[in-house]
Input
Amino acid sequence: MARRRIIAGNWKMNKTPSEAVALCAELKDLVKNDAVDVVYCVPAIDIVPVAEAVKGTNVHVGAENFYIEDKGAFTGEISAPMLKEAGVEFVIIGHSERRDIFGENDILINAKVKKAFASGLTPILCCGESLALRKAGTYKEWIKRQIEWDLTDVTADQVKTLVIAYEPIWAIGTGETATADQAEEVCAMIRETIAEMYDAATAEAVRIQYGGSMNAGNAAELLSKPNIDGGLIGGASLKPDFGQIVNA
Ligand code: PGA
Output
């Protein structure tokens, strides 16, 4: 069974609520494509207006983060039930900016993956190596470890619906994209890891994105690779270019 392509924008800490609504209007006709899942992962405060703005379109709403408890004394955090009620379907987990700037480790990331599934949210689980690990040649071992840690006690049925984003940290926001062959090498290795941890059917079903300076110019080549099922797009998701990536 062919995997359905999934193109997700990661807006990061960009766009006020009114700017977010304006961007939805700007992209509306450009992102139409019934063969592709299109997701806008937006800042928490933009979720409600964006969910309203994309009603009746093919766009799904995603969050960029959440916390593992349903409610309580967790100042500054947002919960899965809050996201669900607002219409969120996807949530980014383990982005390198969360890991590096906010100190999230694989124990928390694994807990978030399990909580997302338990709450009916689909995780977009990010993994990827630093430039140092790329240069040292140990990047594949590192990414395999991340996948094993982050999916501890996650079931095969859950992984079949999971989205994994391979994002080499050296390619994020730098304008330096991994070549299509470099991206495919790691995405294929991730799929093999899933086959080893689970089974062939699960590996065949899991969707794997590439992320890191994907843009209108390089998307088609990256997406032509057999193990790259989509993209997680930062900078270019804030521009009309995003429509070209959706339709690449
Ligand atoms: P970028 O970001 O497309 O701006 O490199 C990708 C990401 O961090 O998800």
Observations:
- The two ends are 21 Å apart (CA to CA).
